[in-house]
């Protein structure tokens, strides 16, 4: 197993083939950026039901691009979702595509998504979120890093091979969805249904949908937190009331809701729901060491966040609370007054939104039960006549992989070739539920290979990808094809030698 | 003082003059409704800065109507307001109008406003809020009752006198503003400036900008609560963050804000800010009796609210907590996620909005100090590195009048004539700061004469005025002109007799 040792530098010097590919990519960078601009211009926001058509249009555009690469593309219908108001809304189709079927080559399946988080200029964007705009080497636009840029970088890498008439060292498969930002509805069922079909001959699964931990140093991701999102609805009647006409004589739903939300987490960030920490994996000495070797600039991370003081002062404290301990965030309230200015309203029906980031080995069903039970208990002590409804709107399991897998070795070598240094081996505090889902269902080797820097601002205002990361990311994917192809050949040869010995 | 005793029935039977006026008003009701439809169609929302032009347009439309009645109209410029973001926004002009100058007649000044609360169809309106729509005898539309309907009813009443060529029994003055829903900016300064000019020859001031306490029984209002609105801003940085990337390692502004808002009021509706009840007027036996005589249908009031259970079970408990005790309502949060669905965001800057309804003899400056001091104290105990800013965005004093004034007697008689019964003598839990301002500055007799029923839904979805109330309200104002004219003559005659004796 010497070949797959962690931390080993690439045994392959930058070859003529690689140089040829790098040259092509450098020469065509403006064309690649133009493609990204076209994609960012599509407001494929999967969160807001009214924009569903744009998501579908984005998926179809992506399918066209894959077809023009020579891939066979299937658009899979996923059915409908049920909205909170009871209405039914069609899900966008999902892409299954295939490029190459050589049984001598490994088959790598790439996962990405082409839907985006909501964005509005007035939320504080310096540029229009749906017009990719280059300023000082950065490409600003919703989806630039999450996740249109990485999907296109993968496509660009394949295009380089095609344009240069270099044979692909791997068979490729693509699974591209349009509902990632809204909980990947329908995806898990599809993976289950396709496990014995589309996935049967897949060797490796690569996901590029997260960030490095630093602004400049690449990273490989071997784990993510999960998530459970909750709605807490309190209602007193059907219509909003005037605080002059009813203030002082009714149990106001906002007062109940604020008390419920206020019972969730203490000033140190500790979650107050009884039992919530019971199943959290205990910290081993081996895991502790992993954190020590990570190059992590606390000040840089603070600067990226715009926040002056974190809850923890050390690298280890920060990383552990992002990666291996759960957290609870309150996102907002639906139904209350939210505009600038003053409105003396008593909202009749308010819905608090919060989420808990899951870690190994928390169980989603247990967490759901704990949250509902706790909030119902807090509410019952208020003696309020209002109606309470607590529901889990979305959930995703956490995921952890084995960092000694060949997939990780190939990626580490490619990073060394393109970026000149070894990557940080990191986890992600966010949720890529698909990683866990792929591993659980297909039992294939799964890896996350990000190209977005820590300051990309995904889910935030002024999301961006740097021109450098987008172009080097394209090179990284191309070299990764070469490395995993080589490694696969070596593995086969080793296996053949064993057989002949 | 026998003439002005409370509860006395009108000594004047419905006269030929009154019948002539009633007939005219009944015959022209559709025309009056058409006028209201035109006014409701103007989205004169004074809360949202982007709609300021519409408010100004509405004020100008009103000025045109008053001019066509024969009034001399002045549009007074009020300068600008400073928005929270530091920008300056022009205030709409204010109308000062005058109709008649006969020194033998009393001069009645009418106050109303033509701006409205924000409204959007998607907030839960059954009809378009800016298209007046009649359904089952009710006229639905934003401003139907608050306050375009009452302003037009007053104008309609004058039109009846003009059309029938009946001499007006009173001189009229009008003060109509366009910033009531946004705190009547500039109004107090104007009243002060005009006290020795426009108001010098005014005898009585009538305000019609509130509701009856019942669906069917008219009321006269002799007091209102005040209000103080607060903004509580908590900020951690300049841009929103992703809860996957920062959840668990920062002090989230929403967590701080929820804790601050959660410290304001307990489950029984009692305000937790130390000292807030210190200056509340103590309850006398005389005041207690006032509540006992009011016809108040608790079940009807509950049905109007859509709320099943109030904090108090008795009529007195309800009315006292609406009128003579302060209340605190939390209206909402600006800057957090407020749309349907899920967004795993950590908002960087959130502003909680709440208000405290003031009662005699609470002092606004003291309340402001108590609130700011308390919230800063609660925040300091959290050891949060975030920035807190508490500010009072708007304030209005409470107001109470003497119910034995001639103005109230005339109104009581007019109500008896038009509606056939004595009014409830009530206060209003809401804020008509102008009532207090008029009384404080001009020292004139001030009265509130509502025509909106308890289920009008002002500030709420599906605001309405019934056709009956709108048309009977027009008659009420016409008869009120006759009654106050007569009463004034009798007062003068009594005064002359005294002089000649």
From TrEMBL, chains A, B:
Active-site residue list: 115, 180 (proton acceptor)
Important for catalytic activity (site feature) positions: 242
UniProt-listed Gene3D superfamilies: 3.30.70.360, Zn peptidases (3.40.630.10)
Cofactor: record remark: Binds 2 manganese ions per subunit.
GO terms under biological process: proteolysis
CDD domains (alphabetical): M20_dipept_like_CNDP
Record keywords, A-Z: Carboxypeptidase, Hydrolase, Manganese, Metal-binding, Metalloprotease, Phosphoprotein, Protease
Binding locations of Mn(2+) 2: 113, 146, 209
Domain of life: Eukaryota
GO molecular function terms noted in the UniProt entry: carboxypeptidase activity; metal ion binding; metallodipeptidase activity
Positions with a binding annotation for Mn(2+) 1: 146, 181, 459
Cofactor annotation: Mn(2+)
Domain Peptidase M20 dimerisation intervals: 230-380
GO cellular component labels: cytosol
Transmembrane segments: none
Family: Belongs to the peptidase M20A family.
Protein name: Carnosine dipeptidase 1
Species per Swiss-Prot/TrEMBL record: Pelusios castaneus (West African mud turtle)
């Amino acid at each position: 197993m010497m070949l797959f040792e962690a931390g080993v530098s690439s045994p392959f010097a930058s070859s003529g083939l690689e140089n040829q590919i790098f040259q092509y990519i450098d020469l065509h960078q403006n064309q690649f950026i133009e493609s990204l601009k076209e994609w960012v211009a599509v407001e494929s926001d999967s969160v807001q039901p009214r924009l569903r058509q744009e998501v579908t249009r984005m998926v179809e555009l992506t399918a066209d691009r894959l077809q023009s690469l020579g891939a066979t593309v299937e658009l899979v219908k996923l059915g409908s979702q049920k909205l909170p108001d009871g209405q039914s809304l069609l899900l966008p189709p999902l892409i299954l595509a295939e490029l190459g079927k050589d049984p001598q080559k490994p088959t790598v399946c790439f996962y990405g998504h082409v839907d985006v988080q909501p964005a509005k200029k007035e939320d504080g964007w310096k540029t229009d979120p749906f017009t990719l705009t280059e300023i000082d080497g950065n490409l600003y636009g919703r989806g630039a890093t999450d996740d249109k840029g990485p999907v296109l970088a993968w496509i660009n890498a394949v295009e380089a091979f095609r344009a240069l008439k270099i044979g692909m060292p791997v068979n490729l498969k693509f699974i591209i969805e349009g509902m990632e930002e809204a909980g990947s509805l329908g995806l898990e069922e599809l993976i289950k249904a396709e496990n014995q079909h589309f996935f049967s001959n897949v060797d490796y699964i690569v996901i590029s949908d997260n960030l490095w931990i630093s602004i400049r140093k690449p990273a490989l991701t071997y784990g993510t937190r999960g998530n459970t999102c909750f709605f807490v609805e309190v209602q007193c009647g059907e219509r909003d009331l005037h605080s002059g006409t009813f203030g002082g004589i009714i149990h106001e739903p906002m007062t109940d809701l604020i008390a419920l939300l206020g019972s969730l987490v203490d000033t140190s960030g500790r979650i107050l729901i009884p039992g919530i920490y019971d199943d959290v994996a205990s910290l081993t000495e081996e895991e502790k060491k992993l954190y020590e070797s990570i190059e992590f600039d606390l000040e840089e991370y603070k600067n990226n966040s715009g926040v002056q003081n974190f809850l923890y002062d050390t690298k280890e404290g920060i990383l552990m609370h992002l990666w291996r301990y759960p957290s609870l965030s309150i996102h907002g309230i639906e139904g209350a007054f939210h505009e600038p200015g003053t409105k003396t309203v008593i909202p009749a029906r308010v819905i608090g939104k919060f989420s808990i980031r899951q870690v190994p080995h928390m169980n989603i069903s247990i967490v759901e039960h704990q949250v509902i039970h706790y909030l119902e208990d807090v509410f019952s002590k208020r003696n309020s006549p209002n109606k309470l409804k607590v529901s889990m709107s979305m959930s995703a399991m956490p995921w952890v992989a084995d960092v000694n897998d060949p997939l990780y070795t190939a990626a580490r070598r490619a990073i060394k070739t393109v970026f000149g240094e070894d990557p940080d081996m990191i986890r992600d505090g966010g949720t890529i539920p698909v990683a866990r889902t792929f591993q659980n269902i297909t039992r294939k080797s799964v890896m996350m290979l990000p190209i977005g820097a820590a300051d990309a601002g995904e889910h935030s205002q002024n999301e961006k990808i740097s021109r450098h990361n987008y172009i080097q990311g394209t090179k990284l994917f191309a070299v990764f094809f070469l490395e995993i192809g080589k490694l696969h050949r070596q593995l086969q040869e080793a296996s053949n030698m064993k057989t002949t010995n």
